[in-house]
Amino acid sequence: MYRDLFAVFAVATALASTALPSASCAEEEQQESWRLFVADHSLPVVHAIDLASGRQIGRFDLEGYAALSLSETGRTVFAVQGEENVVHAIDTGIALSDHGEHRDIEVTPPKLVGATIKGEKPGHVVTHGDDVAIFYDRTHRFDLLKESSLLQEKPEPKAIDTVAAHHGVAVPMGNHLLVSVPNMQAAVKEGELPPRLGLRVLDRNGRQIGDVAPCTGLHGEATSARLVAFGCEEGVLVARPGGADGPKLEMLAYGASLPQGKVSTLLGGRSMQFFLGNYGEDKVVLIDPDSTEAPYRVIDLPTRRVDFVLDPAKFQNAYILTEDGRLHLLDTVKGEIARSETVTEPYSKDGHWRDPRPRLAVAGDDIVITDPRRSLIRLVSSETLKQSRAIPVDGQPFGLVAAGGSGARH
Known about the structure:
The protein is built from two helices and 35 strands. By secondary structure, the protein is mainly beta.
């Protein structure tokens, strides 16, 4: 009898345990939410747009024209107003949190953070985890702060010396900081800033560790997995984790087999470790930092490049818009253009570098393209490269970031 009762109890327990996940799943809803943050070309305003409905869900008036930068967490859009010496932060209202086997998503209205960060001509803003580094071109410092504190409107920026004012960058990397070095021996005209000659490693108190690594004309940086890369005239400088002694810096020289050119803009792969960079105006280059034989693969474009972006979810996809108005799907594994379609009218690269031209972002299965001449945001399928719909926007939509993702909503 006890054996029979035990068998019944075991079956009942098994049935109850298998029912528990279903009950848990009933309490949560899978949701995907994307928001676009669009800066106007000439007006001091950023529009927040819900991608699904196309509705404007926020308008944020600033002090000047803003370049937009999205934090690594996707929680914050930095509106960098270099001419006004200020950086505003916009809370995207989308928070993704990892729970091992799944992610949770929390969606709230976007809002302009009350606290601002000020400095002489802010330029590059780089985030890594909760760290934010804001570099100022016209003074010899950058600020290091926590994104979480900024969103709580209690930022406590720590100023770290950069030797001299220059158009540079600072990148948090674990317990260290990677900071550009100005060439103080270079002859510069009055009012101009000195060029960059290399990169140095600092600890969190601003003390230098080791020697300066040469990187002539340093410009462009990106993170992929645990690596950080910088564009230089002689190659791409890669920083690898190195323990207590700080990151290890290695130069990937271009080599004689490559055509004339250099990398000055970099993007980093997320789910696969690689970098994509420009190589002059009509080429891009795939960079394998672990290849000792041939780290570079150069891809020719039909015309000059207007903008390019990596797909964060589909590691084999990169999208490149050229001045003839065509969008190209670059297969990053094969190193070749897989498909091309016309998506806008031509936008010439001639003229001022900040003339209104389209910009790209990726939001789920959509490639998002600003079209400032037509006051439109165009949504293009990442599968077909065909336009699926367009969202009208007041003014001249220019700078663009997409924030969002999918997760369980409890």
